[in-house]
């Protein structure tokens, strides 16, 4: 059973809800897949521009790909300029204009992005993702749909799982219409906003979960997590700061001799389960928008 979201300019789009995802008997398996697949795309050497991942950079990358896919030379409002990117990223609330400037410059420097002249106005430079960025985006997209595929294998999510470039373009172009719904989902999870905004904080805590950190009998030490620092392109002190904030917010507790062992609390598990379910629900929404877009394209070409 699905329910609908009202998308401006489109109407009601049916998709699964976070509540339905959380209630699914295979959700624990999907959660494990979500964590392991996202860890891969956020690792140092994999995440673009040799930065650590945070919500500001991740949303910036997604918006670059979406705006490029929606580019219409005849429609100046759709031109993927730096100004358009900044205005859109600002709606998400995770990145300052200064951060975007430095990140875009680094993406150009490292071969993920090109600045191209707009043919109709040679004063304008367009942000164009290279195949290197598009390839990463396909992996990032597949990471979301791997977990959904566990929950709903019939009919499944073959195009994004197969890294289909044609589906990627349709998905990116149609996802723009869902930005308001995605923003609402992210900011509905206020307890984890810090961990979305802080570099690699989300994936480090998810890695703690993957290591068995939700088991009160686990013997995970802070040193075990500090060793994750090079994996996710952050310093060891940054990992310690993440753990300190997580403890302040009742996301982790320390136990054992000299409080040596770190455990995730049920409070953390509930908060991050809600976020994961919300994220997967929005992925189902954008998937259905992409299918609708492809069907409309097919009709117009027939």
Keywords:
single chain, 302 residues, mainly alpha, two-stranded antiparallel ribbon, two-stranded antiparallel sheet, 11% strand
Brief digest:
The protein has helices at 18-23, 27-42, 55-69, 82-92, 97-109, 131-151, 158-161, 165-175, 179-187, 193-197, 201-210, 222-226, 236-248, 266-301, and strands at 3-7, 11-15, 113-118, 121-129, 252-255, 261-264. The protein is mainly alpha-helical. The strands form 3 sheets. A two-stranded antiparallel sheet has the order 1-2. A two-stranded antiparallel ribbon has the order 3-4. Strands 5-6 form a two-stranded antiparallel sheet.
| Number of DSSP strand runs | 6
DSSP helical segment count: 14
- Average predicted confidence as pLDDT: 92
Largest sheet: 2 strands, antiparallel
Low-confidence spans:
none
Tell me, briefly, the overall form: globular
Please state how the strands of the largest beta sheet are arranged side by side. 1-2
Query: Between the first and last Cα atoms, what is the distance in angstroms?
Result: 32 Å
Instruction: Determine the strand fraction and express it as a percent band.
Output: 5-15%
Structural class: mainly alpha
SSE order, as H and E? Answer: EEHHHHHEEHHHHHHHHEEH
Helix content: 55-70%
CA radius of gyration is 20 Å
